[in-house]
Amino acid sequence: METTATSRAAPGNLKILSVAALLCAAAAASFLPLSSAVVSVMSLTCRRTAHERLCISLLAPDNRSGAAGTVQDLAVIALTVARNSTRDAVWLATELGLGARATAPTADRDLLAQCRALYAACFRGTTAAIALVAAARFGDAKGAAAALRGYPERCERLFYARGVKSPLQRTDTALQEELLASAEIVGLLR
């Protein structure tokens, strides 16, 4: 008759294995992002927009996006990023206008001044849209955010109508994308 030996782990070995497994799990978890639940709010929100990559590229660089817990928080962040870019566009149009005083025709300087005025109005509009989102006046915020998208395009049309290459084309394109992504996020608010 053959006897088969069955191996049973000693109770002490099971404890060691359990502790080792827990340590491995803890080490693996330490490599996960601290705010993975919040990051998913951003990714879920951006997934619901028509331009997901644009949404992510707008929000991801801003550290506050990782702490955002709601679509409303993300809308404020997106509009704030767009407002900051609008402020930079006002500065750029001003600088180009000042530099153009000596060399550019008066008509070109006038175009830059008109674009500067458009950017300044857009800056005020983004500030107002941020206040509407923060006050949970989502219907008004949606209209305000959608209206902002036209400002960079109007600047470009000024140069196009005059047959002049716009020195603000890159700025206008980037700003238009930020305003589009912001408006889409605001559009998700209920």
From TrEMBL:
<feature type="domain" description="Pectinesterase inhibitor">
    <location>
        <begin position="43"/>
        <end position="173"/>
    </location>
</feature>
<dbReference type="InterPro" id="IPR035513">
    <property type="entry name" value="Invertase/methylesterase_inhib"/>
</dbReference>
<dbReference type="InterPro" id="IPR006501">
    <property type="entry name" value="Pectinesterase_inhib_dom"/>
</dbReference>
<protein>
    <recommendedName>
        <fullName>Pectinesterase inhibitor domain-containing protein</fullName>
    </recommendedName>
</protein>
<keyword id="KW-0732">Signal</keyword>
<dbReference type="Pfam" id="PF04043">
    <property type="entry name" value="PMEI"/>
</dbReference>
<comment type="similarity">
    <text>Belongs to the PMEI family.</text>
</comment>
<keyword id="KW-1015">Disulfide bond</keyword>
<dbReference type="GO" id="GO:0004857">
    <property type="term" value="F:enzyme inhibitor activity"/>
</dbReference>
